[in-house]
Every structure is written in structure tokens, then in C-alpha cells.
Specification:
This protein has 226 residues and is an alpha/beta fold. The protein contains 7 helices and 9 strands, in the order ααβαβαββαβααββββ. Strand 1, helix 3 and strand 2 (81-85) form a beta-alpha-beta unit.
């Protein structure tokens, strides 16, 4: 029989997993701020691996409250376009509130699942996201969608915690799809992309909702043929 303490831990992990997948309400807003601190380095590295340039059209999957992409809007400049796809209504509104007034480029926020987002075929220069891959059932379906959006020569950069790090966190037992680097790279090449980079680094421990987490980060990038 499960003890009361064990049940409490499981309930807490389920709540955390649900909020990470789809942040809602005040707790979701607080978690988004916590995730900004936790994911600042891996997000910056992921954007760097995308190699964004002024005037490009860049799509971010799962931006949270958008604050970690603020500098990207300056890189894209006034002729560029930043598109955020965020299925949480609360987070989508926060992206609008946080970036709309100060973004240097054009900005569009799509409050929906990426499979429903109205992105034109062959219109995107770059696509990126952090830890998105752990919430996707079918990588081939996702990458096929990305390939349709990308212009020839377009790039994809995905930042993530490694599966070994994620397995150590109880909340990843609830709805997370943990995947190895080789599996992700195989799915990238299966849609015809060229692997463009693999960056791994360790980070200092982070605090998340009262828990100390040991973290590392991996950024995988790929390019659609010209």
C-alpha cells in the first residue's frame, strides 16, 4: 500500500508534469519565471545554434512567457518575423504582454498546438524549442511538419536536458517521452536533413519548486538541403 507521503510526492510530480506541459494560472506563471532561470543558458545556446540573421522568419515552439527570446527579436530586426507557438492560453498572453511593446521585429503568437498552427509552407528560415521533444508522441510527424514549413537551407535547433538527467526527476514519469540523442538524430536524418551540430554541456544545480536538480544540456541542430 502506498503511504500518505508517497501519494503526496506522486501528486506533486503529476502537478509539476502537467504545468510543465501546459502552464496555467498563477502557479503556471510562477513556474514560467522559474523555468526562465533554469533554462536561460540552454535557450541561449539553442538560439545560437540556429544562427539567426536579420530579416529572417523564425518559429519558436513552446516559448513559455517569451522572455528568453527577447534578444532574438533584436537580432531579427524590423524586417524579421518572430512566431511563437504556445498551446497554453496564459503563456501565449504573457508572450504578447512581455514582447509586443519592445520586440524589434514583427511578432505573431499562435495560441494552439504546433500541428494546428497556420504556418505557410516553405516560409520559415529557422525553428527552435527547448525540451519540446519530450512532449511529442511522434518525432517523425513533427519533423515532417517542420520540413514542410522550412525554406530550402532552413535550420532546426532543439535544446533539451539529456534523458539521463530527466530520468532522475520524478515528474518525468507522467507524460514525458524521454529520448536518446541517437534516436532524435536518426529521426532528423530520416526526413532528409543534414545534421549540423551537437553541443553538450553541464550546468550548475538549479532550484525548481523547492527541489535541487542536477542538470546538463544538449543542443541538436540540423539543416534542410538547399
Amino acid at each position: 500500500m502506498m503511504s500518505t507521503d508517497d501519494k503526496g510526492v506522486n501528486d506533486s510530480d503529476r502537478t509539476m508534469a502537467a504545468q510543465l506541459s501546459n502552464p496555467e494560472g498563477e502557479r503556471g506563471k510562477e513556474l514560467a519565471s522559474d523555468m526562465n532561470r533554469a533554462n536561460a543558458l540552454v535557450t541561449a545556446c539553442t538560439i545560437d545554434c540556429l544562427i539567426p540573421e536579420a530579416g529572417q522568419n523564425v518559429v519558436e515552439i513552446g516559448p513559455g512567457n517569451g522572455m528568453l527570446s527577447f534578444s532574438l527579436t533584436y537580432t531579427l530586426e524590423s524586417d524579421g518575423h518572430y512566431q511563437a507557438i504556445e498551446r497554453s492560453a496564459d503563456m501565449a498572453q504573457q508572450v504578447r504582454d512581455n514582447l509586443a511593446e519592445y520586440a524589434e521585429c514583427q511578432m505573431t503568437v499562435h495560441n494552439e498546438d504546433c500541428f494546428d498552427a497556420p504556418i505557410d509552407d516553405a516560409s520559415v528560415d529557422g525553428i527552435f524549442g527547448v525540451n519540446v521533444i519530450y512532449f511529442i508522441e511522434d518525432m517523425t510527424e513533427l519533423f515532417t511538419l517542420f520540413d514542410r514549413w522550412l525554406k530550402p537551407g532552413g535550420r532546426v535547433a532543439l535544446g533539451m536536458r539529456t534523458s539521463d538527467t530527466m530520468k532522475a526527476q520524478g515528474f518525468t514519469q507522467h507524460g514525458f517521452k524521454l529520448r536518446e540523442k541517437e534516436e532524435i538524430e536518426a529521426a532528423m536524418t530520416a526526413v532528409g536533413w543534414r545534421l549540423a551540430g551537437s553541443e553538450y554541456f553541464e550546468e550548475a544545480d538549479i532550484e525548481l519548486e523547492g527541489k535541487t536538480l542536477k542538470v546538463d544540456a544538449l543542443v541538436l541542430s540540423a539543416q534542410k538541403p538547399e
